[in-house]
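Hi again,

Forgot to attach this to my earlier email, sorry! This is the prediction with alpha-L-arabinofuranose bound. I've pasted everything inline since the attachment limit keeps bouncing my files.
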Amino acid sequence: MKKPKIIISLILVMGILFSLAACQSSNTTKSGDTSGKKIVLGFAQVGAESEWRTANTKSIKESAEKEGIKLQFVDGQQKQENQIKAIRSFIAQKVDVIAFSPVVETGWDTVMKEAKAAKIPVILTDRAIKADPSYYKSFIGSDFVEEGRKAAKWLVENGEKLGLKGDNIGIAELEGTVGSAPAVDRKKGFTEVLKSHPEYKVIKSQTGDFTRSKGKEVMESFLKSDKDKIKVLFAHNDDMAIGAIQAIEEAGLKPGKDIVVVSIDAVKGAFEAMIAGKMNCTVECNPLLGPQLMEAVKDIASGKTLEKRIVTKETIFPADVAKNEIANRKY
Ligand code: AHR
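Structure tokens for the complex follow:
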């Protein structure tokens, strides 16, 4: 009579153990967090100013979804005050990690101190800040100075072939958002290389705020005053270059021929312009930072120390490779 009782008890114990194990494995998220809670990431984006930014936002949203990370996403609409407000709301919500792509380099100290006091780790993506490095765990993004250098090197190496001759090769520069890391650094890298090529002279320089419409507007005004002197356009991003190309055409000139066009990002629109013969070269700036960011978020959540600087690998695309490359472009 005793034996069946023991067997039933054994079956019951095994059943309980089995369901506990099943429960445990369903609580393990893709992020490796076994507490059963999803990691919450607050992300304050710059805005939606360019093709590049659209691709960057898509990459972040898709990667968060794929990794099972709960994303609180705020579009800062190119305004620092909006990003600061978003970061403060992430602190109030007690998110696990805060990440942001700072619209400008300075003015972050107060809110960074607040995040530090709340013990919420911060990751910078795409753009850097000028502040105490202890405010953030890592900065994931491109080397913007190097991008500026690459644009200038390509120009001086290919200038003659493109008909740029003499001691006064006038360059019009469309700068990115004033005070932003890519605008400051790309200018720095470009100028640095041109120092040893004094025949290339930046004769016009103004911000186009990284947008197509502003790029067009500023180029129109450049052409009004210096149509005959401008031989090169250096734009800090493809969107401004594409806007400026329209202005060049409307002024009766041929972009890519009468004015050599060099820019940065390597978005699809630039490849289309290069295939149409209207742009000469674009330097790659990779916006697909989502997977790297989510990896970093998971690492922080599991207590790992991140590398302070994670640099994105990038190349350059002159017009003659555009036709073959366009099919491989993901943004
Ligand atoms: O910070 C990256 C820059 O921001 C990209 O070059 C530009 O297109 C974007 O708006």
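Residues 301 and 328 are 34 Å apart (CA to CA). Residues 49-50, 52-53, 126-127, 182, 210, 237, 239, 264-265, 285 surround alpha-L-arabinofuranose (CB under 6 Å).

That should be everything now.

G.
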